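Teaching assistant here, posting this on the class forum so everyone can see the example we discussed in section. The complex has two components, and the goal was to see what a joint structure prediction looks like when all of them are supplied at once.
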Amino acid sequence: MSGGYKQQPGSGSGEVRKDGKRVAGKQSFGPPGSGGSRPEMKPRDLDFIPEMVGGNEKQPAGAHIHDRARTGTTVGKAIPLVDANAKVTGQAWYGDDVRLPNEIIGRIVRSPHHYAKVVSIDTSKAEALPGVIAVATGEDAPNKFGVLPVTKDEHAMAVEKVRHVGDLVACVAAVDEATAREAASLIEVEYEVLDSIHDMKKGLEDVDEPIHWRGKYHVGTTNVQKRVFQEFGDRSMVENPNAMYHGKWKYMGVNHGFTEPHAVVAHWDSNGRLQLYTPQQVPHYAHRALATVLDVPMHQINVIRTFVGGGFGGKSDPFPHEMCAAILSRKAGKPVRITFDREEVFWVNRGRHPSHIEVQMYADEEARISGFDIDALIDGGGFASFGHVTSYYNGVLATAPYELGSFHYTGARVWTNKPASGAMRGHGAVNTRCAVEVGLDDMSEQLGVDPIDLRLANLLPPHSRTISGFRITSNGMRQALQEVRKGSDWDNKFRKLPLGKGIGIGCGFFISGSGLPIHWDPNKFPHATVHIQVDMDGGVTVHTGAADIGQGSTTAVAQVVAEVLALPIEMIHVRSHESDTSPVDLGSYSSRVTFMNANAAIRAALEIKEKLLNAAWDTLGYHPDTLVLNDRRIYYKHDPAIGMSYLEALHKAQEDKGALISSGAYRSPPMGGVHKGAAAGLAPAYSFSAYVAEVEVDVETGIIKCTDVWAAHDCGKALNPLAVEGQIIGSCHMGLGQVLTEQMVYGRTGHLQNANLLDYKIPSVHEMPNVTPIIIESCDPEGPFGAKEAGEGPLLPILPAVVNAVYDAIGIRINDLPLTPDKVWAAIAKKMKVEGIDDPSELPVPRIDFSDLQEKLAKRAAEHEIRDKKRQRSEDTNAYVNGVLFGFNPDIPLEDQVEGWKSADKPQPEQLAELGLAGKAWLKQEQRHMGGEN
Amino acid sequence: MLMPPFELHRPGTVEEACKIAAELLEAGQEFDWIAGGTDLIPNYKWHINTKPHVISLSGIEGVSQISMNEIGCMARLHDIAQSDQVHPLISEAASKVASSLIRRNATLGGNLCLDTRCFWFNQTEEWRSSIDWCHKCDCGTGADCRVIPNQNELCVATYQGDIAPNLMVLDARVHLIGPNGERDMPITEFYQLDGMTRNVLQPGEFMLKVTLPDDVSDWTGAYRKLRLRDTWDFPEAGAAAAWRKGDRSTLRVATTALESIPRRHDTEVAESNGDVKSICDAVYKSTKPVNNTSLPPRYRRNMIKVLIKRACEE
């Protein structure tokens, strides 16, 4: 045989043709490109194989459980997303690209009132209009739905009341859009207008007609949808603080601002099954909700996820317009398409909650953080959406990355007559994080220390437990801080820049997949399932329900399968669009997809790999442990000449069984405490990030320009550095919008004044700073090849980094986001008055004199660095719980060694008097305790 | 987002355009002119004051000339911004309008005749119905103004064009043409209160061109625009200043985006004896923006001082 390539040792005749050509009949398979008779096999890429298994890739964080599955094929390589071609050539099919034969157009009739009872609806004129085919109202769909099973409070269309301007009242379907619009205007609705609520503070008060009624669980007769109390640690530690920060923060609501407006096509096929095309982040929840609302079993619905033109949390609820399309289509017997205007996108909203957040933070004489007191009142708008979870996240996601002496959180989410708030990139964590990070900056100034050193000396180590009981595994926080400090030349800039220029730091902490899925029944339902099938052509079809919303989940899944099977990524075909063929997946939210789906995909791929290697064992006679899987070829470790092509192994494996099929699943390990709310914020891993932002502030106009950002994010392992950097830069852009210009403005009449993308100010490319993405790889022990999330966490630090940089530039802290020029200008004018100066160029600039604590902190940070490295590499496997920094023994429950150390999920009577704004929700009793409705 | 149907007329000459306009007037038919369409079409998509007929100027030959002393109504803002034939102040102002995509379509005439804007008005039909309409687009209801309530006499929508103040400080004249012939006037006299009247264009009339004085190239100046983003956004306030090179006594100042019309501030400049700070204070006093754009009026009013100061910097 030519080139020493032995196809089938022992079985060949040994005959060699002198002209170098193959001997006929010996190799019946082998089309080019799949590793057949022309073995254009790439050599193993040792630079992408970990050193623990014989490659050159450094592993500062130690070995990983998936090291042996690495083949050097795609993991760690910056490759374009697998759907990039479809997108850049315009062939990707988004919601509104779906065109079915005989489709008709649906249009929604919306409420012109903030809050009203629907007295009657007369659809007769609309129905009489030529071209109108179907009309539906709330009566057609009385069943409630909602994304969370505990808070189902939505109807397809108003059943009794409308709850905000733009709420759905009825819908029509007609032969074209013009007719549908006209028909919509002919629907006559009689309303009885009710007193509406727009100020979230008013939501805490008892009213005659709460926006929803929760029966025996209703809090008084208020509009409180959810209230939370969480207290951990020793509250006495905050007495006599060495430094203290008290900040009352106000955040405007922001919208996701994705490119593609919602669009849906519904079609009941010839067998009476519903085919629903929708750009959904979470097709499975839409699937469930459709079954409930339409009263049909789930298996009679096929949810087809189109390409998603951006989601960011805004396409993760099941939506009423999806129900409307299905209802209209059922009535009309034709496919119905509904495409939103941008204004309608703002009316379904689900953006970040407008919030009032009050933060008190304390540091002791050692500059340890002795306590966080957080009170968050959040404005939920008209519906619950994800709000139950948001109410917890606003507090509990502040319990790391710092070690705390105590933690106290009260939160409340109220209904108001606005479009519903919901989940948005960085869900629930963003606003509190901003306040907390600015608080640390402020305390560091009081203590006379560098804010980065203050952070470095107070970090929880890898493999530790937060004060609320979250299990931290990998933790790259320290390295992230060190990298941005170095990259930004922090030490030469902080408090040294001239007036108008400033630099600031901010950190982030976020979940990588929620540990408790929203739908956890039946009890052991996996979070993610992936099926792989390989037929004789060698192509690998991967079925997953993970919704690629542009973040690259399809690529991530394709990459890990390609990596395990050592195949070019072009041979991996991911099928993820249809619920008919996809295994159930809980969707693209809470940054869970890469972590959970890729883990499931690795498991499924390993099963295929095993089958291939066993087939090779049969043929080659060498045990799989001694076989190497490389680019479309399997060979004996010690003599690469002995081997067979991938296709041959595949065909051998298929001899008796047909196509190779496997299924892999992922479920997070049991974790967390037992208190009420313990599950909120639990995740199998957490991401960490640190940003330094540099800004220029025009002191005459108050205009802030963010010029540079150094953005370090610990994503565990960058499966695809290109995608990770894209997420970091994109997060930066989105967070920058919230901190500088984006806001949903409700005018004096309560109407949303800027429901369009001209007046809703998303930063343009001109406002984008130079972002230097820095990827930190802490190698998560449970993540796929060590990976954690990179889609949401990187958004968090940009807000506080900018706010802190503005302080460094002009010596003013503004607790009211976004920092629009008018607010900054007003704050400057106020400061000038206080300082008695006429010219803003004479504003004093903050400077720092380090105190004795600075050296102490630097020393502590250096010691902790050694501690963290040992823990990261599992050289130190002692338990570490929050509290060790304060001298407590991690092996004895803290309650047993510290008097006053406690964990509480509701306030004690004596605490009621001192509750903050949101905490006041606890002054009311639930109906069941008042002898009210049972 | 569907426009209501309208009949589009596409004259090939100015005369033909005037003839169509005259015929429609005769027949009692309402119509709009359309040039680049970047202002009209978004308004039509939102069903704002739509008309059954639209006359397009885009097919007319010879109205897109660009030179130092004359610019045609159909000259595209992109071409003006890129041209080295026009006064630098005008190309600078044109380059600051909206985005590069919009400037490719948008025209000088359209920018000067821009409809006034207000966040109670520039909204979809459903939205406007939810506030029971407003004076500027009341759908026959006689609705009140939402900015200054309890009256439906005055419209205070804001003129947010960038180029007008620059033409004002360069002493430009506008040339209008219609069924009753051609006329011209200083651009300062073109604009007319209130936010619905906007300008002196008579039914059937459109702006043909803008001319500039022979000595315009001897003049220098600057335009300063306040906006949240360096693209897309209309000015929240804008100030233009110009003076004959080397002679500050000739200083002229004009502002835009503060009221329903752009204004040249000759009185304020004269009373201030050329002292820029005094001019700023005087304009601040004489200008009263209202709350109908993105940024609050108090801030915009204060910023006019900064903008004028910066526009006057040599």
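For the discussion questions: Residues 593-620 of chain A form the longest helix (28 residues). Chain A touches chain B at residues 110-113, 165-166, 177-178, 181, 341, 343, 700-702, 741, 747, 749, 751, 753-756, 758-759, 761, 763-767, 820-822, 825-826 (CB under 8 Å). Think about how each of these relates to the inputs above.
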